[in-house]
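Sample intake — dihydrouracil dehydrogenase (NAD(+))
Collected from: Vagococcus hydrophili
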Amino acid sequence: MSNKYLEEMESSYSMLTIMEEAERCLLCLDAPCSKSCPAGTDPATFIRSVRFRNFKGAAETIRENNALGAVCALVCPTEKYCEMGCSRSEIDRPINIGGIQKFVTDFEQQTEMEILTKGEPNGKHIAIVGSGPSGLQTAASLLQLGYEVTIFEKSQKAGGYLRYGIPEYRLPDAIVNYEILRIVNLGANIEYETTIGKDITLDELKNKYDSVVLAIGLSQGKTLEMFAKNPAVETAVSFLARARDNKGDIELPKNALVIGGGDVAMDVITSLKLLGVPHVTDVVYEEFCEFKASKKELEGAQNRGVTIIDGYYPVSVDENQVTFKHRHLNNELTIEAEKIILAVGQEVGSEKLELELENNQMRDSGYQTKDKKIFVTGDIVHGDMTVVWAVKKGKEVAAEIHEFLGGSHK
């Protein structure tokens, strides 16, 4: 195994370089970067604080708006959101907002700042099913409003996709642990290895709690019928979880074929290279001009020597040989690999919990279900499937629950 898999890939700013980067900010009056952040983390305000060496104020801005600020600093595709709105782009390049946010949240951790406080108890208790990013943000928001919160997690550890999906080099376990501990210290109770429908029923939750939030996420990798029961095939979700859970200490092939072109596929192919697989090939349905993956993740994979073939889709498979056809050209190619990994999407696992889903998302928009006591959040709700959007949804569902329950105090 290569130790590179466990090494954080992003370098951090020093005190000197952080000031240089913050001073590039144009201090826009009506800052487009803040308008472009789905979670409302308000980069314009925290960058202004950094520029005037008010790191405490910067940390307060980030944390009060985003309970997962340290996670988002590392994994948010900023080029699609805040940095795309940055006015500095018209001059040279956007401000490295993610890098500044990382410096501030590192400062927050090193100085042991405790920014969020639990609200005055209002006598109401909320159950949250799932401890992924949206469930965690929901918990943090509700705790600050005075609710008691119990999170039910089917796994041995909290974090959901943060814990079992995003590779260690992008999101170290220490950061995930840090974020979760802050929410536990705020008052969240987490019941581990508890599956709804098996260990406790949804009806029992409804009877015991004032509201129930289902934040179950898309925990299962999709497959394609032609690859069913093929021993050479594994889903991206399974591979990433296995690699992360074992700190990269897994059996590796000499060559691997990955099918898919989103950010998850980029995580897989980069992980394979960092783990020491010599030959990695990624075949993607989209052509480069329409790629779904972030430019940063794509460039990272290409820089590590991954072969990426765009514009092809699989038409047949014979054990470990896959034949592809081009979308527009009369071309076919066949690739043989020891390991085939499918990164063709994710879906809800077994915990559907009587939800009315269509293409793994709620048929209706909004957070409250037909059963007024049950709310939903996370990837099963319409919107982008990123951590920053999970934070946005967590904040919004918490506000909706608060309004539904009247926000009354004892």
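Post-analysis note: The two ends are 57 Å apart (CA to CA).
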